[in-house]
Design a protein that fits this description.
The structure holds two protein chains of two kinds. By secondary structure, chain A is of the alpha/beta class. Chain A has five helices and five strands, in the order E-H-E-H-E-H-E-H-E-H. In chain A, helix 2 runs parallel beside helix 3. In chain B, helix 1 crosses helix 8. By secondary structure, chain B is α+β, with helices and mostly antiparallel strands. In chain B, the strands form two sheets. A five-stranded mixed sheet of chain B has the order 2-4-5-7-6. Classes of the chains: A alpha/beta, B alpha+beta. At the A-B interface, helix 1 of A face helix 8 and helix 9 of B.
């Protein structure tokens, strides 16, 4: 996907912080990323399965989605296809952050996906760098 | 087939197989002309009729041959079973013929004798002509007529008898050859059927094995990718937390702790590389990687690698040089991501293993169709023995750096990729002097 940044991320919430939706089911990784993102000054919403992820993604106050592929109830790929037609989520940049490497070609082509990151190749601060890059901050 | 039979049927076979016209004429005479002249000959209800004689001659000959063949096949121990079978068939046949008319007694008895003679392995062999003559009830009739002196006065009866005798001999021989043919055809057919059946069984088994192998292969693929995925998750957490602590997310840490964490981080990285490489190897080896082939500027790829590795080379105080002749342009047809991996692997190896001195990266064209990249270092060097095994799977160089960083898969993957792009890879090295890792790729030509 091209890295062009056409959409200006909206900042919502009481504190005016940027909100990250983290869709991730591994509790250790949820804790790690949440801590890191909060240290970096982001507001973090966590969904531990695809259905919850879809619900939170479409409620309209999300600035960027960090999405795992292998998640319960609704896979990351299914979630991406459903988000495609949702007006509230259509402009939200998505970073796929997963340890599944063989779906890269397929997932990269889905709308909204800015980049496909293999979790084990990035430290949390490197993920934060990517987030900043796509938020234009 | 026994010799006696062959002798008996030789003449007839000349007629039947040697000359097809001969057989046709014979059938015409036997079945059309003769019955036309002598209608009495074909009447089934006349025990002396030609038709009855033909049927008897043919059927007994066939039974005789089939039985003999069976006996030969099964060996002598169970002969008695077959003898009973044979007698039963002849009795049934007799009964069947009896339904059409009165059976010709002497004829039947003598035929029975011929069959039994063979089936029971009697030493007395009746010559064909004797059997035929004796077999025919007409013989009795003939003798009777001669006895009464009537034959002299009845030319018609004489001729009729003569024809019957000849046809009988003829038909019996023909019956035998027919039976032989039938049996050998049956044999061939059953052999072919057996082979076909065996072949089918073998094919079926192979298909089954093939299916199972494919299934296993699929399971293995799934296992490797799931294992890789499952291994990566905890590794991500270890790597992530260690990096966060080192970056100060938990506050200041003592110098010693930082040192330990750096080691923990290095081995975690190695483990991650190992998992990635194992997955890559299995994907490359099985041809499951989709290569995004495109015309790629090799010099640019090498330059990019050069700049990214320069940081580490500078840190180690190495002289780090990239030598590209002016005006050189090397376009190669490869997957750019994969060739970046190749160049990165060779250059980072050189930086890793070289503690002092210099690293030269040279690009050249040994001939107009070939692009060559060399990475020459002043590292520890590799013995001739090690050079041979260096590009093999899970081989690690016997050096500190090899033991610390290596997964034993890097150069193996590099070789697989270079070979995939129709290139060559190699090393020239001398212990304590340094190494020259090189690869060559065909230059892309516009068609």
């Amino acid at each position: 996907m091209p890295d062009d940044q056409t959409n200006v991320p909206q900042t919502v919430g009481d504190s005016g912080k940027t909100t990250i939706l983290l869709v991730e089911d591994d509790p250790f990784l949820v804790k790690m990323y949440k801590e890191k993102f909060e240290i970096e000054g982001f507001n973090v919403l966590v969904a531990e399965d695809g259905v919850e992820g879809l619900k939170l993604a479409t409620q309209g106050n999300i600035d960027i989605i960090i999405l795992d592929i292998l998640i319960p109830k609704l896979s990351g790929i299914d979630l991406l296809t459903r988000l495609k037609n949702n007006p509230k989520a259509v402009n939200v940049p998505i970073l796929v952050l997963t340890n599944l490497t063989q779906k890269e070609e397929e997932v990269k082509l889905l709308p909204g996906v800015k980049e496909y990151l293999v979790k084990s190749d990035y430290t949390p601060s490197q993920v934060v760098e990517k987030i900043r890059m796509y938020l234009g901050k | 087939m026994n010799k006696k039979l062959q002798k008996r049927t030789a003449g007839l076979q000349m007629l039947s197989s040697g000359s097809k016209i001969g057989v046709q004429v014979m059938w015409l005479v036997v079945l059309v002309i003769l019955p036309g002249i002598f209608p009495n000959l074909i009447k089934l209800n006349n025990p002396n009729s030609l038709a009855i004689n033909i049927i008897l001659a043919l059927s007994t000959s066939i039974i005789y041959e089939v039985t003999k063949n069976e006996l030969e096949k099964r060996g002598k121990n169970i002969q008695w079973v077959l003898k009973i079978q044979l007698l039963t068939s002849v009795i049934l046949l007799t009964w069947f013929l009896h339904l059409f008319g009165r059976i010709n007694g002497p004829f039947f008895v003598l035929y029975l004798l011929t069959i039994m003679e063979s089936a029971l392995n009697l030493s007395i062999k009746f010559p064909n002509i004797v059997v035929a003559i004796a077999a025919s009830a007409t013989t009795t009739e003939f003798i009777w007529l001669v006895w009464r002196g009537e034959i002299i006065f009845n030319l018609f009866s004489g001729l009729q008898l003569f024809i019957r005798l000849v046809s009988l001999i003829f038909m019996r021989s023909y019956g035998i050859s027919l039976a032989q043919k039938f049996i050998s055809e049956q044999d061939t057919r059953s052999k072919i059927q057996n082979y076909a059946k065996n072949l089918e069984e073998v094919t079926g088994k192979l298909e089954e094995v093939n299916r199972k192998l494919k299934e296993l292969d699929k399971q293995k693929d799934e296992f490797i990718s799931m294992a890789a995925h499952e291994l990566r998750s905890p590794l991500t957490a270890i790597k992530g937390y260690v990096s966060m602590i080192m970056e100060g997310d938990t506050g200041d840490i003592p110098q010693k702790a930082r040192e330990f964490l750096a080691d923990a981080s290095a081995v975690t990285e190695r483990l991650i590389r190992l998992v990635n490489n194992m997955l890559n190897v299995s994907r490359i080896e099985e041809g499951r990687i989709v290569y995004q082939m495109e015309v790629t500027d090799l010099i640019r790829v090498v330059q990019e690698t050069f700049y990214s590795e320069r940081v580490e080379a500078d840190r180690k105080g190495l002289k780090f040089l990239l030598n590209v002749p002016d005006g050189l342009k090397d376009d190669v047809y490869v997957d750019p991501d994969r060739i970046r991996e190749v160049v990165g692997n060779i250059v980072s190896n050189a930086v890793k293993f070289t503690e002092k001195g210099e690293i030269n990266i040279n690009i050249s064209n040994p001939d107009k169709d070939t692009a060559r990249v060399e990475v020459v270092d002043t590292g520890p060097g590799i013995s001739k023995e090690e050079q041979k095994r260096l590009f093999q799977k899970f081989y690690r160089a016997e050096t500190t750096a090899g033991k610390t960083f290596g997964t034993g898969l890097g150069l193996y993957i590099t070789r697989l990729l270079i070979e995939k792009f129709n290139g060559k890879i190699g090393v020239e090295s001398e212990v304590n002097k340094g190494s020259n890792f090189w690869f060559e790729l065909p230059i892309y030509k516009k068609v």
